[in-house]
Design a protein that fits this description.
homodimer, 256 residues, alpha+beta, Jelly Rolls, 6 helices, DNA-binding
DNA sequence: CGTACCATTGAACCGAATCAAACGGGGTGG
DNA sequence: CCACCCCGTTTGATTCGGTTCAATGGTACG
């Protein structure tokens, strides 16, 4: 059952037998033959702290990453959709740094860590893997700033726009999408409560930015959402930039 | 002027001519001869987005990392003390992902990225560098959870305990330390306002947990602070764990 | 058809932000 | 040396966004 639609976005598409890619660079022979498994909603692909044994490109479905801090505080740190790869750990970590939980019954490939390492010898492939990791790190930083200094409406608008962008990258044309995650998950990701998320969604809908019913959601006014995200009203306030004393992209001397 | 006290904690001590280390593994010859520079308070070691050219082990002084999001939101993401290395970018990034600003006049070494790469060929050294990077990533995650789901007092207690731990690792014996960063910086890191930070410090002092005057600070009751951090009263409330639906270290099946 | 879970909505409360002074220390210039 | 100013900090009064507590409604599933 090779070549699911998500293969076309997969990190491994150039080295994977499952994916039929037109552009097949001469150097890269398709040496990867991943196995497939399905994970039931609520089950874990892997758990934080366990040794890294494999990575999991999603074929169909979605997942959340959950981090549990040393003191037992748990928080969702991200969502993954089909085409994303779960379990990629930066810095050659030997243990998973988060847990990955399926949001719905999910089909994925299983690429052993040995196979991954083997293919990492190929420079272009290695670069693309590292680029994905860097992108993930950037994502977490954006989330940090969002939670740390944006208001609830902005954070939620950010998430909706992000989900929409991802959905469109996967072929979604109109702005209608089905949220795989619960309000609680969204709230956890954004550092809010589920009530606030629910209220905010209703408010967005009442202002004509979106329409929601349960987990069916449609973006009606992307620009409006972007305006909320950027905090150009008409939601709440707080001005960007100009915070900590000396930190601006000023033109003081700097070594690099 | 080699071998500052901070050398004994430096990541590069085993390969650096400046550092006099007793245990000198046979394989690693001391081939690193870093140059030294001083950076004035408020100046940048390097700026986010610039190509990575060098890393900067701190000899004397301190710095803050500042991240600026695509939309212009700026936030402090961490503090570095003497012995720490600034500019280590994970995933072979070609540009700095944050800016590093000196909190005071700071002396540091300059290790070119080429020199770093050369030494990364040495497996034990490489592992220690990767370990530092992983530690930094973990730190940012803890910060994310702190900002996302802990209350102000807990966050501040966390920071104070962390600063104290770092200070003690550097030889500090009693709990007295001098904060190099402003209230604004602390507030930015913790996702609060400077007024809240100031008030909280006063409150901690009035309860006998610490004593503060301006930037002179002394920890009086570490256990008390730890209790505040862990949220065991006697400050505010909110119970840990048990958040997002299915995510607990339960014993559901998982692949790894 | 009943049960369980997720989502919505309302009312009251509270923590932290905001607005607004006053204070303190360190530096500069008279 | 002292007066003055600047900037970071402290403290107070007030507002407000988001949480908490609570009840109802909707949907899926056994």
């Amino acid at each position: 059952m090779p070549d699911s639609p998500s293969c076309s976005l997969c990190l491994f598409r150039h080295v994977c037998r499952d994916a039929s890619t037109a552009d097949l660079s001469p150097g890269a022979q398709k040496s990867l033959q991943p196995t497939h498994v399905t994970v039931a909603a609520g089950d874990a692909f892997y758990r934080q702290g366990r040794p890294v044994a494999a990575v999991f490109p999603l074929r169909e479905g979605s997942a959340k990453q959950v981090y549990e801090s040393p003191l037992g505080w748990r928080q969702v740190t991200g969502f993954s959709l089909s085409g994303d790869v779960l379990g990629l750990e930066p810095n050659e970590a030997s243990a998973y740094s988060v847990s990955a939980i399926a949001l719905q019954d999910t089909m994925c490939c299983v690429v052993s860590i040995e196979a991954l390492r083997t293919h990492m010898a190929d420079p272009p492939f290695r670069d693309s893997v590292l680029a994905v990791m860097r992108h993930q790190a950037e994502r977490e930083r954006i989330l940090l700033v969002a939670i740390g200094s944006m208001r609830a409406a902005q954070r939620l608008a950010m998430l909706l726009l992000d989900l929409d962008t991802e959905h469109r990258r996967r072929g979604g044309t109109d702005g209608s999408l089905t949220l795989a995650m619960s309000r609680t998950d969204i709230a956890s990701l954004l550092g809010l409560t589920l009530e606030t998320v629910s209220r905010l969604l209703s408010r967005f809908a009442s202002v004509g930015l979106i329409s929601v019913r349960q987990r069916r959601l449609r973006l009606i006014d992307r620009d409006g959402l972007a305006a909320v995200y950027a905090d150009l009203e008409p939601m709440p306030r707080q001005a960007p930039a100009a915070m900590a004393a000396h930190a601006g992209p000023g033109d003081e001397p700097h070594l690099f």
